[in-house]
Amino acid sequence: METYPFTDNTEKKQYELHVGNLTPKIEYIKNKNGEIYLTHTEVPSALEGKGIGSQLVEQALKDIERQGLRLVPLCPFVAGYIQKHPDWKRIVMQGINIG
């Protein structure tokens, strides 16, 4: 699968992939305690079913781990990705149950 440019758009508080003129995104909230809440994932309908959302989540999780943040996955898509890839539970904030 093709890899697309990934950015952390801190101004808009969202992670983004750049796929042509389309921008799949994950919105987030960071607090000063070193926690990040992933609140909403959005993939344009033209890109659905192509693994773009999973690629976006994986890149976001790598960035969160690199920054040493504790993850609170409020978005069901992100939580589902972590259920399928349980090794990522290592960055989930203690006490958060993903199933």
From TrEMBL:
Signal peptide: none annotated. It holds the Pfam family Acetyltransf_CG. It comes from the Bacteria. Residues 7-93 form the N-acetyltransferase domain. PANTHER family: BSR4717 PROTEIN, PROTEIN NATD1. This is N-acetyltransferase domain-containing protein. It comes from Alistipes indistinctus YIT 12060.
